[in-house]
Amino acid sequence: MNELASPPSRRVVAIAVFDGVEVLDVAGPMQVFSTASRTRGSAQYEVVIAAAERGAVRTSGGMTLLAERTWDDLGADVDTLVVPGGLQDDGDRYPLIDHGLVTWLRTFAGVPRRVVSVCTGAHMLAAAGLLDGRSATTHWSTADLLAAEHPEAEVASDAVFVRDGHVWTSAGVSAGIDLALALVAADHGEEVARQVAQWLVVYLRRAGGQHQFSALLGPRRSVSDRLEALLSWIPEHLREDLSVETLAARVNVSPRHLSRLIREEMNTTPGALVEGMRLQSAVDQLLHSDAPLSKVATASGFGSVTGLHRAFARKYKVSPGEYRRRFSTRPDLDRHPSL
């Protein structure tokens, strides 16, 4: 279906909220749709907040939202349903599951043209069975949990957002803005989305995926200065010899000592660490450029397309080309059949 053909005069976007919802999961997309309506007269969105009951809804950040409708009030006028995320208050950063919302989703999800989740909201879509047989993403910190609890879903842990049919899912928190911009682009074209992004002072498409936050920032919180320096140096030298001997010489320790440091502080091996960073570089290029696989392999340090394929098979169980086709955020990908 051509989403740009015969657009309705007004698109109703319903955001289904609950106590403990992440405030930016709601406010980010809401602001995108509001700005789109002010940017161009034909891009008219009506955003409504719905909850189990009308009235005040507590957010995780302390802000109170006002639900003007209940979930059961929503009907066929809803064009897009947004399910934001939240975390439990137990300190373990476990996704919050509102079981009432999950039950309602099972009956209502077939009504709107699109069903969207932001951040850990994907866990509620999965609990409702809406991700069965679909590709999806969520916050990087819960991606492994989503894959383990719902093996029927294919989790793209590095993607900023994923579209699979009428179901769209986004990565953590602010990625809901990226997804909302993509929805505006699908409804009204790239230029309108670009104007919205410019007004909000955000990128229309951010560079890099979630791994830039999970793989690099996460471990650095607890590593020694020696490994910190190495983690900063490796991404800038992916095309060079990164054997354990080379890395050890870089930080003036023996290969055996470096292996022990990496095992104790990062629970991995030097080889796995390097391959992970090379994979991260390759994924970023695949998702955000049209570079051929040979250039991706060279730039990320795999040396050959064969080496790139082997690494992707080990980590993602798909080829680099298939990964790009499934998860690229570039709408013009179908114009590059050789990718």
Automatic annotation (TrEMBL):
Boundaries of every HTH araC/xylS-type domain copy: 228-326
The record ties this protein, via CDD domains, to: GATase1_AraC_1
For this protein, the record's PROSITE patterns field holds:
HTH_ARAC_FAMILY_1, HTH_ARAC_FAMILY_2
Q: Which keywords does UniProt give here?
A: DNA-binding, Transcription, Transcription regulation
Record's keyword annotation contains NADP: no
What organism is listed for this UniProt entry?
Answer: Prauserella endophytica
Name the Pfam families on file: DJ-1_PfpI, HTH_18
The identity of this protein, by name, is: GlxA family transcriptional regulator
Query: In the UniProt record, does the keyword Transcription occur?
Result: yes
